[in-house]
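ok here's the first one, seq then struct tokens
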Amino acid sequence: MALKSTIFKANLAVADIDHGYYADHALTLARHPSETDERMMIRLAALALNAHKLQDVCGGDGTLAFGAGLSNPDEPDVWLRDFTGETRLWIEVGQPEDKPIVKACGKSEEVIVYAFNHAAEVWWRGIEGKLTRPQNLSVFRIPTAASQSLATLAQRSMQLQATIQEGVLMLGDSAHHVDIEPVRLK
């Protein structure tokens, strides 16, 4: 018998001072049985960091949502689609292989990878040479201490505030907060 995903609900209030974007997002996250709280919260942080693109790229006429991710390797962890169905933003978290990233670059206007954990630097050194060609690809590393601290925010029902200022995401609830400053690798 296959294990089922665990459902998490998050009310995310985004205040992106850098981009002048302020909105509330009611989100449902399905955590795959093999996914950790840390990875799930990185997906949520990636959505918060890029929520402004809903307005900037789609003029508010689009959908920003979680994809199937681990359940379906042909879908991103987070995506932004306009109302014509075109994928405008494809976000992967973790340490994906080069071929799926290059394939995603052909399917979307922009692709962003958020690598995390202590092996992210080793992964990047091994894959960097294979990802020089795609011009629509950005790669960031989330510092290990910040990514591990995100797991403390994971609850089945979350009320979170995300403030982005000077490239730093401050994500928290009423009891805890985590400061995340993604490091650009590409």
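and now the second one, same deal
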Amino acid sequence: MQPLFIDLTGKKIVIAGGGRIAFRKAKTLEGDNAQITFVALDFSEEIILLASQRGYELIKREAQADDFKDAFLSILATNEREANHALAKSLDSAQLVCVVDEAGEGNVIFPAAVRRGPLQIAVTSNGASPKLTRMLKKQLDEQFDESWTGYSEFLGKCRDYIKKHSIPPSKKNELLAELLDDRYRLSEDERERKWAYLQSLAETTP
């Protein structure tokens, strides 16, 4: 499998299932501003609340192949192995499909992900060892603590600012490399000083 990061903003996602696993997948996607529809005979209180908060659609019946024909991403997360299998077989092979209880029947796997602002780190064992995946995610969570959130946002802001100003390319590369110094991750004051310097540099550059 090839790892990809995909922008799901405004994309239609259909989830077959109304229980714990369906809820967990939807929570993973919550920050992506996708249009999510759940199809199931019953929905957990968690899903009902989430749908109310986020404006997600709930269709109360068994999922059918037609429910997924316009979906950018289909997630088969019913509690029935045979139902997930039958739906997976009925969908177009060109569609993006995640089958939660049998990854090999789909073509999408949700990795264990660590998010710190714009920074995302994902890891998967492609089903070989979920325990290994969980262990590595825990290690990454500890290694990339919350200090990386403000730092990664700072890096993005500085890069955009440097790119849009008429600074010689060699100087731009030098400035971008300097931003990788760990003191900017560890100190908000250092970030503020660097930002002020960049602004003054851009103002004085012809």
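notes on #2: The longest strand covers residues 35-40. Residues 57 and 86 are 23 Å apart (CA to CA).
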